Amino acid sequence: MACCCGSSPSPESTPRYRRVLWVALLVNAGMFGVEMLAGMKADSTSLMADSLDFLGDAANYAISLGVLGMGLIWRARASLVKAATLAGFGVVVLGVTLHNLFAGSYPDAPTMGAVGLLALLANLAVLLLLMRYREGDSNMRSVWICTRNDVIGNGAVLLAALGVFGSGTALPDLIVGGVFAFLSLSGGWKIARQARGELRQARDTERLGTTAAESR
Predict the structure, then answer these.
(1) What is the longest distance spanned by two Cα atoms in the chain?
(2) 12-215: in CATH 1.20.1510
(3) pLDDT digits (tens, 9 = 90+) for 72-124
(4) At what angle do helices 138-167 and 109-130 cross, to 10 degrees?
(5) What is the pLDDT of residue 186?
(6) Backbone phi, psi, residue 2, to 5°
(7) 87-116 burial by CB neighbour count: b if 16+ within 10 A, else e?
(8) Rounded CA gap, 55 and 28, in Å?
(9) CA 101 from centre of chain
(10) What is the mean pLDDT of the chain?
(11) CA 214 from centroid of its chain's CA atoms
(12) Taking the CB of residue 212, how many other CB atoms lie within 10 A of it?
């Protein structure tokens, strides 16, 4: 009965979740460097887009670590920052995709495939660590959405490598770049929508508490 009545700590405040975020941050920071160098060498839009995604995710994990244990308002504000970062990444990727489309670049399919597979394995490992934390406030939700989008994007990079190799054109690589842009823009919108709702909820709670205190 004591266990049923007692309050357990929220998942985002546990040391285990903090360790998971640190692992995710280090993996994403390392993969950003690997994929950016490989993408520039292979002239691949999808690899460079994925590397920027890794960089954005590393920053988002760092923000999540910074607001752990803070109140809902601060966590929701951090989520709005992450939503803006994710949407901004989508705009940048869309610009790179359009640039390479008109520039007529042709990527190296074997490099795309090898690095894309490495990135997929890295993100799958992070996704498994985060599986139990996929539900929660907008801050936790944003971490899950970013990692899930990464796995989808890595699979798309592998498909693009196969498409470039089979078709002899850069079109599959450019299509995947467009997919990355869409995932980032839609993910940013979802995170921002939940964060705004949490801010309204927190402010309403504060207002009710103030009113109740004044009535006494």
Answers:
(1) 76
(2) yes
(3) 777 778 778 878 877 887 888 788 778 777 877 778 888 888 998 999 999 89
(4) 160
(5) 83
(6) -65, -35
(7) bebbebbbebbeebbeeeeebbbebbbebb
(8) 7
(9) 25
(10) 79
(11) 43
(12) 9
CA 116 distance to own-chain centroid? 17
Over residues 47-70, the mean pLDDT reads 79
Between residues 69 and 21, the one the model is more confident about: 21
**CB burial of residue 195 (10 Å; 0-12, 13-18, 19+):** buried
pLDDT at 70 over 50: yes
Give CA–CA dist 50/113, Å, rounded: 13
Residues contacting residue 81 through CB under 8 Å, at least 6 positions apart: 63
In this structure, are residues 77 and 199 in contact, taking their beta carbons and an 8 Å threshold?
yes
155 CB neighbour count, 10 Å cutoff:
17
Nearest of 93, 33, 24 to residue 59 by alpha carbon: 24
Please, what is the end-to-end C-alpha distance for the chain in angstroms? 34
Q: Whole-model pTM?
A: 0.67
Q: Which residue is listed with tokens 């309204």?
A: 200
Integer angstrom CA distances of residue 180 from 3, 46, 52, 125, 141: 45, 8, 10, 20, 19
Give the pair of three-digit tokens for residue 189: 């919108």
